[in-house]
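Pipeline run #58 for the internal structure catalog. This entry was flagged by the ingest filter as a single-chain record with no existing model, so it goes straight to prediction. Upstream metadata was stripped on purpose; only the residue string is passed forward. Reviewer on rotation: M.T. Logging verbosity set to normal.
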Amino acid sequence: MLQDWSAQRLQGMAITIRTGERDLMAERRTAECWLTDMDGVLVHEGQALAGAAEFLQRLVELERRFLVLTNNSIFTPRDLSARLSRAGLSVPEKAIWTSALATASFLGDQLPGGSAYVIGEAGLTTALYEAGYTLTDAEPDFVVLGETRTYSFEAITTAIRLIEKGARFIATNPDATGPSADGPLPATGSVAALITRATGAEPYFVGKPNPMMFRSALNRIEAHSENTVMIGDRMDTDVVAGIEAGLETILVLTGSTRRADVERFPFRPARILDSIQDVIQLI
């Protein structure tokens, strides 16, 4: 049975409590804008999930503004659009928002025209370059860490020394591991922990679960939180960040979080659905 929840703040956290069988989403205006996670919601291991293509087509038909979100900072929106196309999903570049883009947007607001030493791939370096940043290892304003499959001891050492000299530490996302065909791989959060242990400096993580990523996404499509819905597959990133950004949240059970896991968290999504296919009727 679908349950409805009303939000309140408790001990500095966003939580929700059950309010009965009233439909919280029905009490709000029809959702004009949609944010959706990519992996575990639209695709799994490179394959489109049931209903994903129809969901995206429905958004287009009804002229709903939307963005596909990902914490992955390796790829550019063009790369990701091509990957989704190979899975049978039509998502234009402009409808993809990555942690790399969110990081570049954040730094562009914080220090326009700044400089950064970057550990990351094309998705991150391109985003920073397009935001007007100079990429350098000579007295940069920031050390920016993103995900890469080619972490080097030399690059990490350089980052540590630059932070010790005063560069501020930014990371695209806190994910400790990433998926691969052979099993988990160390990701941004793991390397950030290494740098923190060496320097004592904690990074500022821009990507999920920081609601900053959702707010920058809302700005990108000129959306407002009161009429935007977030769809995700993880309680500890998608749902909590969506709640803290003031969005309605839908948890789908095709990714990381199982229905039995939900009770472990002190917050709740507005809806729990089996898959993205079940969301289509709500658009």
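catalog note: The chain has two domains: 31-71+209-282, 101-205.
catalog note: The longest strand covers residues 5-10.
status: ready for reviewer M.T.
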